[in-house]
Amino acid sequence: MFGALLYLRLTSLRNLVVTRLRRLRQPKYLVGALVGAAYFYLMFFRRAMGARAAAHAGPLAAGLPDDVRVMLASIGSLVLLIIVALGWILPDQRAGLTFTEAEIAFLFPAPVRRRTLIYYKLLNSQLTILFTAGVFTLFSRGGSSLIGGNAWIHWAGWWVILATLNLHFMGAAFVITRLMDNGITPWRRRFTVLGLIGLVVGAIVVWMWRDLRAPQAADLVNFHTTAAYLNTLLASGPIPWLLLPGRLVVGPMLAADGPDFLRALGPALLVFAAHFVWVLRSEVSFEDASLAKSEKRAAHVAAVREGNWRAARGALKARPGPFRLAPSGPPEVAFLWKNLLSTFPLFRPRTFVVLVVAIIGVGQWLDFDPDRRAALPALAICALIAAGYILFLGPQLARQDLRSDLGNADILKTYPLRGWQVVLGELLTPVAILTAALWLALLTLLVAFPPGRTPWLTPGLMLTIVAGLVPIIPAVCALQLLVPNAATLLFPAWMQSMRNRSERGIELLGQRLIFIAGQLLVVLLALLPAALGAAAMIFATQWLIGLVAAVALAAAGTLAILVGEVAVGLWWLGQRFEHFDLSAELRP
Asked: Long-range pairs for 493-500 at CB < 8 Å and ≥24 separation?
């Protein structure tokens, strides 16, 4: 029977690969696959090969010193210990293995032993773990020149770590189910586990306070002295016994070469085998929970494929509207109300007001004390980073526009509205969300640079810059959002494939990269006239009317150019929408 299940798993994997390869016959998937492959090569493989060549050519080829390697093993085992503790604290449901509807329909009624189902589930999970270990290997290749070893050693090391954690979580779930069957509630279990953790931590703190010395200046001279002190700290008393299982599991990952890997692999596999026996000997029923889990998963997948992310997050609950919608008024406001209702409850005007008050209060609190004033530059850096992420990734994340309503285009076309009105109404929600986020980042920058601290940033110039940026930010956000919405109308088949976020693949990653690159290029070209005009206006007029007035005049000119570009874009998209036929565009 196990051979039949193995054949089923391997055949399903082969069919998945064949299906992915057959999709490459379509140009949109082929181009996306080529771009995705180029991205992985440039971001990971070429960098990994360069790091490997540099390691062989330099003094780091031997890897880390032994004391640093021991310290990393201790830190890694401590992280694993924390993850394992969370696995005993957080779960609040009965153990249920993840089976598909087809597997439940055919395997549960079949004459298959319960232990065979666990074998099948463990085999099925290993394929996912191997893929995840490969991804982690790609991301961790930058440290290979320091740790030592090669890609195969790191891949196997990540597999040992992830597979052992998977078995431990499964065994812990079975134990938690047995405790629930015996009447022990989740909160009683959590308090018990937290109490045991508190006792262990308290005992370690008492022992450290009594027997260990505090670090001296000589222990913190450099990285190696610090590592030596930490190794002494983590290798004394009861701490090594707590970290021993984690050290054994992490050992293969930190191996410097093949023989070192083989020596570390044996103890790690013993820990893995102990978990394997523990899971197989756990006598607990998981069938009912697996059925409920499968039904929930099927409903989630169906909602995701339909683009209904609110339904995918769980049961829908009635909640008040984002603001009071008047019986009559501009129809675009109704689109704003509708799309805001489909977002998270935090995206509301009152949330914006609360954040404004909080940012001002935190800024005043930091500026009041000279000792806390040193944190203001860090606050400004965080605001700049947040603004950069919002400008770069915001249009791809805020999708409450035509990208979400593409399937309802036939209904939208029946409204007694012009095409540009529909497009404008669809854009209002993501523009409002991104604008509010950027305004908050701008407010944080103002709080981090109070008047009088920077000599050249006079209060008049700061007020002019703020007054100019506040109306420009919505125009820039609208200009950015015009690009993905234009792509939705021009390439609806591509957007439909990207809209299905339940799918994964290198070709879909390539499609998203193409659209992001295209969006940045178009936006930069659209911003170029406004930027050149503003620079020329400041340079030509600052000598006549002063810097403050020149900046104000340049901001007004920039706003006029951006508003004109947005208006032209709305008119063009409206024309495209009026002639858009969804059934013809998505026809195979």
From this structure: 493/28, 493/585, 493/586, 494/28, 495/403, 495/406, 496/406, 496/586, 497/28, 497/29, 499/307, 499/403, 499/406, 500/304, 500/305, 500/307
